[in-house]
Design brief:
Belongs to the class-IV pyridoxal-phosphate-dependent aminotransferase family. It catalyses: L-valine + 2-oxoglutarate = 3-methyl-2-oxobutanoate + L-glutamate; L-isoleucine + 2-oxoglutarate = (S)-3-methyl-2-oxopentanoate + L-glutamate; L-leucine + 2-oxoglutarate = 4-methyl-2-oxopentanoate + L-glutamate. One of its GO terms (molecular function) is branched-chain-amino-acid transaminase activity. The chain is an alpha+beta fold and 367 residues long. 26% of the residues lie in helices and 29% in strands. The protein is built from eight helices and 18 strands. Strands 1, 2, 3, 4, 5, 6, 7, 8 and 18 form a nine-stranded mixed beta sheet that branches. Strands 9-10-11-12-15-16 form a six-stranded mixed β-barrel, surrounded by four helices. Strand 10 and strand 11 form a beta hairpin. The two termini are 21 Å apart. The structure holds pyridoxal-5'-phosphate. Pyridoxal-5'-phosphate (PLP) binds next to strand 12 and helix 6.
């Protein structure tokens, strides 16, 4: 290991939530509503670098009103899950990929880069300490939220000279408890998520703040989710909400599974990358393409696009059932989850729970 290891101080809680209360939460966790007994914090300051790494009881932070994050938004995050394995152990899925993306996000926002080893160890420590919060095998998991923000106090506009990195964890239920349900999407031609040269490739809080009004517009149009188009021509499909998109061209064994190319304005999803590999492992042709809204509408009309789905860590794979824009409205296939959508979803979930062979070394056992 090239990087010096950061030593963590372990300060476990003297009052973890009683078993019965935790079990009641795990029976119906929802998403992002309940948090485990602990959190990890690591400080960074200019001159000192990373220091004061701790595992400690989950607790509110005290914050100065002039904390720079509140004013200028240097704030980035990650999302990954710990899965109960069929053998009873617990594993993280590709935490190294999240750690590397976190470094890239930090670079884009002029923040310090946390060493990959420290990111992974912070996640491992929290999962090990709070392993009783990891639900059973199935579609449930423990969602980890690593994040970092400026902690310097002051109103001068500049990269802060102090930061706080943290990891918190929240049990997550099955996204579609009653079976997978297709979503309706609104093609946003007025608002854009990311422009060339902007922060679209970084997982930063500001991207989400800027997206909420478009999501509200989608809801007003009676749609579940917003689909983002490129900022220059408002033609090319980029992402859906906080998930990447996939299109199935053709069907059966000859199907080709394609996803919008990473142009610098899309978030490079780890689920997106994993599915490109899994689809190839299953023997399908894959591609990274540029696809316009006209291509999408025509493809669904003539049947050359048979299925569309979105993917991301939180919701795994979500089928797209109907599409609406200011000018048009159409259905994807018969509006029901497609065969390949289901197959890819089942394969990914099986991989994450250790019930099929981990050919690419993606599972990181936590014990
Ligand atoms: C996090 C995120 C994704 C999905 O990334 P995963 O690594 O697959 O979870 C896609 N789009 C946006 C905008 C995101 O923030």
């Amino acid at each position: 290991m090239t990087t010096a290891r950061i030593g963590f101080d372990l300060k476990p809680s003297a009052q973890p939530l009683p078993d019965a209360e935790r079990e009641a939460i795990l029976a119906n966790p929802g998403f992002g509503r309940h948090f485990t007994d602990h959190m990890v914090t690591i400080k960074w300051s200019e001159g000192k670098g990373w220091h004061d790494a701790q595992l400690e009881p989950y607790a509110p932070l005290r914050m100065d009103p002039a904390n720079m994050t509140l004013h200028y938004g240097q704030s980035i995050f990650e999302g990954l899950k710990a899965y109960r394995q069929t053998d009873g152990s617990v594993a993280l899925f590709r935490p190294d990929a999240n750690a590397q993306r976190f470094q890239r996000s930090a670079r884009r926002l002029a923040m310090p880069e946390l060493p990959v080893e420290a990111f992974i160890e912070a996640c491992e420590l929290l999962v090990r300490q709070d392993r009783s919060w990891v639900p059973g095998v199935g579609e449930e998991s423990l969602y980890l939220r690593p994040f970092m923000f400026a902690s310097e106090v002051g109103l001068g506009v500049k990269p802060a000279n102090e930061y706080l990195f943290m990891v918190i964890a929240s049990p997550a239920g099955a996204y579609f408890p009653g079976g997978i349900k297709p979503v309706s999407v609104w093609l946003s031609e007025e608002y854009t998520r990311a422009a060339p040269g902007g922060t679209g490739e970084a997982k930063c809080a500001g991207n989400y703040a800027a997206s909420l009004v478009a999501q509200a517009e989608a809801a007003q149009q009676g749609c579940d989710q917003v689909v983002w188009l490129d900022a220059v021509e408002h033609r090319y499909v980029e992402e859906m909400g906080g998930m990447n998109l996939y299109f199935v061209q053709g069907s059966g064994a000859d199907a080709r599974i394609v996803t919008p190319r990473l142009t610098g304005t899309l978030l490079p999803g780890i689920t997106r990358h994993s599915l490109l590999t899994i689809a190839e492992d299953l023997g399908y042709a894959t591609g990274e393409v540029q696809l316009s809204t006209e291509d999408w509408q025509r493809g669904n009309a003539d049947g050359s696009i048979s299925e569309v789905f979105a993917c991301g860590t939180a919701a795994v794979i979500t089928p797209v059932g109907t599409v609406k824009s200011a000018r048009a409205q159409w259905t994807v296939g018969d509006g029901e989850p497609g065969e390949l959508t289901r197959k890819l979803r089942e394969t990914l979930l099986a991989l994450q729970s250790g019930s099929i062979e981990d050919r690419h070394g993606w599972l990181h056992r936590v014990g």
